[in-house]
Amino acid sequence: MLLVSKLASMLLMIAVGFIIVKCGILKVEDSRPISTLVVYVLTPCLIIRAFQVDLTPERMQGFLASVIFTAGSYILWIVLCKLLKKPFHITPIDEATLVYSNVGNLTLPLISWVLGEEMVFYVGTMQLPFILFVWTHGYKTIQGEGKINWKKILLNTNLIALYIGIALMIAQIRLPEVLETTMAAFTNMVGPASMLVAGMVLAGASLRRILLYKRAYLICFGRLIVFPIASMLVLYVSGVGKAHPEWIPILMAIMIGLAAPPASTVSQLAVVYNKEAAKANIYNVMGLLLCIVTIPLIAMMYRALFGM
Amino acid sequence: MVLTLAKQVLIMFILSGVGYLMFRTKKISAEGSKSIGNILIYLSLPCVIINGFQVERTKETMIGLGVSALTAAVILLVCILVSRIFFKKDPIAAFAASFSNPGFFGVPLIVSSLSQGAVFYVSAFIAFLNLLQWTYGVAIMTGESKGLSFKKVITAPFMIAIIIGLFFFFTGLKLPAMASSVVNSIAALNTPLAMFTVGIYLAQTDLLAMARRGKLYAVSAVRLLLIPAIGLLLLWLLPESMMDMKLAILIAAACPVGSNVAVYAQLHNKDYTYAVETVVISTLFSVLTIPGIVWLAQQIW
To answer: Minimal Cα–Cα distance from A118 to chain B, Å?
Structure first.
């Protein structure tokens, strides 16, 4: 299966980053400028380029379906957290980790590498509900109280890239050749660069401590398996797949995004507001390690359920 | 040809512009550019070299490799000697004039004016160039001749890459598809990362003062005119049947100063802004000199 072999390539890439730091050839800190480039340059370019397509009614509908599925999933999961709060002693960080997956820096490269650029278009649209929800509900949950940070929402680089991409798409403006060549090069970099960084960061983490932290398994099980399956089942029961079969592959890409490891925004907020930051980081690393197995599983389940 | 070059220069401008902005907006620091430099030297460049040898081993390619390797070695020796004559007292200038950038400018030119297959002829050139930068280049830059030790050569990331590359070439084994795609992807990081560092360094120089710095023109003249001219004469000695190889190597030798000079300068705490200026000035002139040299070769050979 092509998906598995591509994921294996990504794993190999992570391994390269891991080994090169463990062997002392490079340091963990060396990954930081690459990470910066991925966040501020490569991913926004990926998004803009993904929108260099014709605006057709089908795309428009797929766009809306993606956004609604994502937003709906967040609402479902927030409700689930409320219900499970008492029995599972879910703390604010736990909740934020369970609800918000990484739909930018990890998922976009993964999707572009594995499913192709057409899907990047739809996964790119997830930025809208993600940023809106994470900087309102997510922010409030972690911080405890306080005003909504509108600046963060409006000035988010991925969101700005989304605006630019959409504007260009509506105006049917195509980028000039030289710019297109350059951005194509960036697009090809996103996957490898992200995986390299992930591997390097993993090498710097104290893996033993992480693997022995039992609660991380529980929360990651929720984040990577239980919650995505809940969304999948609701989607199935809703009959949307029967009514719009053309959406099924699109929503699989969205599903993968929703089944990704926790969003880095969560651990960043945890650090900033000093709310169980160490825990958040452990969830991050564990999520990254486990998703290598869970994402193909979720993809297989989805395919089986929707007859792909 | 001028068009391809101009396009490359424009792309270089955009890529280094990104680096420039990252530095100016304080997203990446000078320390950060050191990290990128390390990634270039220990990860992406070795992969470029390994990739360069991923061809099928046939009688033609074996001869091609042998001849191109020998030629590359001779020409690089010439580069080093000539630069040494002119820039004995200025290590950075000597490094700059000796070592071109066959990857970024050379390869696209070779692909567009010759063929994709002709790129193989500069694989040895690129490999030797990197090895020499790591040993001789660092030695003159730091003034320490311990860089020329046998141990340093053997343990160079480039030596390891050459050995790996040659191993797969000679045994005819193919890297498993996944490993090959990973090597490919890492190699593809090389050019953009190198250009980002150029931008980051440029953000730390005085651009106006750069235009007035006479030494840069001297370095450019040696790198873009003198050395390629000598190269042209040397390559003349090769038979006409090897025209593609001759042109490919000539183009590689006629390329502007490679950005590595600045990367190595920073890693060894030397004047990397001066180094990057040699890159920029020589790049601008190369748009005219490379086509000129190639045209000359086609007349004379």
So the answer is: 20
Buried b / exposed e over B51-66, threshold 16 CB at 10 Å, is bbbbbeeeeebeebbe
Rounded to two decimals, the ipTM of the complex is 0.82
Question: What digits encode the pLDDT tens for the residues A64-102?
Answer: 999 999 999 999 999 999 999 888 888 888 999 999 998
pLDDT digits 0-9 by tens, A137-171: 888 888 877 677 777 778 888 888 888 988 998 88
pLDDT tens-digit series, residues B196-211 = 999 999 898 888 888 8
CA pair distance A223, A289, nearest whole angstrom:
13
pTM above threshold 0.90: no
Please answer yes or no on whether A30 and B39 come within 8 Å at the CB atom.
yes
Please check whether residue B292 is in contact with residue B266, taking contact to mean a CB–CB distance below 8 angstroms.
no
The CA distance from B141 to the nearest CA of chain A, in Å, is 22
pLDDT of residue B298: 86
Q: Which residues of B touch A188 (CB under 8 A)?
A: 185, 188
Domain of residue B96: give its range.
Answer: 2-300
pLDDT for A3: 65
Residues (pLDDT < 70) of chain B are 146-148
Q: Are B197 and B15 in contact (CB under 8 A)?
A: no
* CATH of segment(s) A2-23+31-301: 1.20.1530
CA distance B208 to A211: 56
Q: Across chain B, which distance is largest between two alpha carbons, in Å?
A: 54
Q: Inter-chain contact A12–B14, Cβ cutoff 8 Å?
A: no
B191 interaction partners in chain A (CB closer than 8 Å): 185
For chain A, list residues whose CB is within 8 angstroms of any CB belonging to chain B. 5, 8-9, 12-13, 16, 20, 25-27, 29-34, 36-37, 40-41, 178-179, 181-182, 185-186, 188-189, 191-193, 196
Nearest CA in chain A to B10: A178
Give residue-wise pLDDT tens across range A41-67.
988 898 888 888 888 888 889 999 999
**Which pLDDT score is estimated for B71?**
92
What CATH code is carried by the domain that includes residue B213? 1.20.1530
Which of A21, A34, A48 is best to mutate for the B interface (most B CBs within 10 A)?
A34
User: Are the CB atoms for A62 and A41 separated by under 8 Å?
Assistant: no
Nearest chain B residue to A191 by CA distance is B185
Contacts of A198 in chain B (CB under 8 A): none
**What φ, ψ does residue B144 adopt, rounded to 5°?**
-105, 125
- Say if the Cβ atoms of A185 and B192 lie within 8 Å: yes
In this predicted model, what pLDDT tens digit does every residue of B21-37 receive, in sequence order? 999 998 898 889 999 99
Does B181 contact A179 at a Cβ distance shorter than 8 Å?
no
pLDDT of residue A28: 87
Return the residue of A nearest to B183 by Cα.
Answer: A13
Cβ-based neighbours of A19, under 8 Å, separated by 6 or more: A199, A203
Question: How many residues are recorded in chain B?
Answer: 301
CB contact under 8 A, B178 and A186: no
Domain count, chain B: 1
Domain ranges of chain A: 2-23+31-301
Q: What is the pLDDT of residue B147?
A: 54
Joined together, the tokens standing for residue A186 give 């960036």
